[in-house]
Amino acid sequence: MEVKIGVQHAPRELVFETDETAENVEKLVTEAVASGGVLAITDSKHRKVMVSASKIAYVEIGGGVAGQVGFRS
Predict the structure, then answer these.
(1) Where in the sequence is the domain holding 8, given as residue range(s)?
(2) Domain holding 52: CATH number?
(3) Residue 52's beta-bridge partner residues?
(4) CB under 8 Å, gap of 24 or more: what pairs does 13-17 form?
């Protein structure tokens, strides 16, 4: 699933794929914003994406995979 995170004062958004469910991503975002801590999500390549909750402008969950072009082996 694709996740887009808009970061305040950053010209580009963070866009990555994760194996998390939409419900779990929403829960992680809600908890991070409520606590004022850090949002940490593991992407589909097992890298951790971390953003200070106070700098999150928006989060878009879902979509994205329909237009991908490439080859898999």
Answers:
(1) 1-60
(2) 2.30.30
(3) 38
(4) 14/49, 14/51, 15/64, 16/41, 16/43, 16/44, 16/49, 17/43, 17/44, 17/64, 17/65
Residue 70 located in a structural domain: no
Show the tokens assigned to 43: 């992407």
Average pLDDT, the chain: 90
Match 């995979």 to its residue by tokens: 65
pTM for the model stands at 0.81
Written as one letter, the residue type at 2 is E
pLDDT in tens, 12-29: 999 999 999 999 999 999
